[in-house]
Amino acid sequence: MHRDLRLNAVGRRYGGRGPWVLRGVDLAIAPGTLTRVEGANGTGKSTLLRLLARLDAPSEGRVTGRPRTAYVPERFPSVLPFTAAGYLTRLGTVHGLSRGSAARAAAAWLERFGAAAYAGTPMARLSKGGSQKVAVAQALLADPELLVLDEAWTGLDAEARDELERAVAERTAAGGAVVFVDHDPRRLAGAPDATYTLVDGGLKARTGGDGTGLGPHTVVVVRGAAGARLPPDAARLVSTAEETDSGRHRLTVPASRSDVLLRTLLAARPPWHVVSVAPPLDPGSRA
Ligand SMILES: Nc1ncnc2c1ncn2[C@@H]1O[C@H](COP(=O)(O)OP(=O)(O)OP(=O)(O)O)[C@@H](O)[C@H]1O
């Protein structure tokens, strides 16, 4: 399937004869999945993310698949000669939105990240945090099939960090793929379908993935029509689902995804009834 992105025996080194930063990397990124990439400083995380975003080409091996991709770089150029809203609107039109839709989407994303007040501020005058909000908004603007986030949370305030976690959950629930690097091990804890560590230029899968119990989980009890199955958008978000009684389901969901799960269930047709929501449990405990 062309939306699946695959790296096949990929290697990357800089400057022709430089040392191999990556070598023999095989990786498949399927729609609807969340992937975390970890590694010590300088192990090639950004290099890998640029290859996934197709902004860089491998020195050897192949990259196949062309999902519509958006990327938040580690360092976002803030000297662009536009206001925040002007820049986002232009980008929206590049992504195929009409000017009006692009302007509305730009305003909506700035609002979501608490940046509406600087919509008219030239990019060069934005603070680091303000500029990072624009960096994140430009990536989310066009509902990408693949979202690549390189330390995208760095510089955001606490509310914007939470909002970005919600936006990631929305993307994966909608069937998009997200790949991220973040220095905070608690980021989206429990949510990734796969976690890889870069060691000696290669990828090591963390055994057991990360969707099996790490990080705080919320327990949500919902009721649907007898025999009804969870809507696919909701099923993608949960770690476990158990029908405890006819039509009554007990779901565990990574805390970072619980808001999006509740919204998805309430918006389903017919809507699901939320019976209870328990606060996040300690990592590993989902009893
Ligand atoms: N454009 C480039 N030209 C030359 N060398 C580069 C280039 N980009 C990265 N490198 C080198 O490749 C190696 C991996 O860099 P990369 O930025 O991918 O690692 P990283 O794991 O993202 O690092 P960090 O955690 O510090 O952000 C480093 O030795 C770096 O100096």
TrEMBL record:
MF-aspect GO terms: ATP binding; ATP hydrolysis activity
UniProt keywords, alphabetically: ATP-binding, Nucleotide-binding, Transport
PROSITE patterns listed in its UniProt record: ABC_TRANSPORTER_2
Residues in ABC transporter domain copies: 5-225
Keyword Phosphoprotein: no
Keyword Phosphoprotein appears in the UniProt entry: no
PANTHER family: ABC TRANSPORTER ATP-BINDING PROTEIN ALBC-RELATED
Protein known as: ABC transporter
